[in-house]
Write a structure and sequence with these properties.
44% strand; mainly beta; elongated; 13 strands; six-stranded mixed β-barrel; 11% helix
Length: 188
């Protein structure tokens, strides 16, 4: 992916309870861990918030520290409980040649012919699946084509999902993803 978000950071020497001073100055502490020794970093809060909004925890990002680039996955974004301010970010440095495991959200698209009649609705039984792939093939969501449900007996299983080449779904292939359910009518 060439459209990877870049986060500019600088080395951090402040540790422990002294990081509160950093946060007051608009800097967020973080750490890059994984392939080599952990690297303690600090980042400006506004560009970090924008970058994390785009990358979330399911897409690769590049963290640039003094000219050196780290390809990372934002793994843990710690937030202040009531105000939801970011207080710390953990980045996992990835090896681009070995597979990683992640979660991908299931998103329903299209409209079922039987649901269009108004007799019921198509419901998702699963909202995410575990996937395995190389970091460059990482996806954050998989579309579920609900138009495949044409009758009340039809259903969509994990084995029916279409994923990009190089992505493997680790869940049971026979697990139910979506099905049609009749609306319940109450008599007076």
């Amino acid at each position: 992916m060439s459209d990877r978000v870049t986060i500019v950071a600088e080395p951090r020497t402040v540790t422990g309870k002294k990081v509160r001073r950093l946060r007051r100055e608009g800097l967020i502490p973080g750490v890059i861990y994984g392939r080599s020794e952990p690297v303690k970093i600090q980042m400006d809060v506004k560009p970090l918030r924008r970058a994390l909004r785009i990358a979330g925890t399911g897409q690769l990002a590049t963290v640039e520290v003094e000219g050196k680039e780290y390809i990372v996955l934002p793994r843990e974004i710690q937030q202040q409980v009531t105000r939801r301010d970011i207080i710390h970010v953990d980045f996992l440095e990835v090896d681009m040649t070995s597979t990683i495991r992640s979660e991908a959200d299931l998103i329903g698209v299209g409209e079922s012919a039987i649901a269009a009649t108004g007799e019921g609705v198509v419901t998702l039984a699963l909202y995410s699946v575990e996937i395995e792939c190389l970091p460059d093939a990482l996806i954050s969501q998989i579309e579920v084509d609900l138009s495949a449900i044409e009758t009340a007996e039809d259903s969509i299983l994990i084995s029916d999902l279409i994923v990009p080449e190089g992505v493997t779904i680790l869940n049971d292939p026979e697990a139910l993803v979506a099905r049609f359910e009749y609306s319940r009518v109450e008599e007076e």
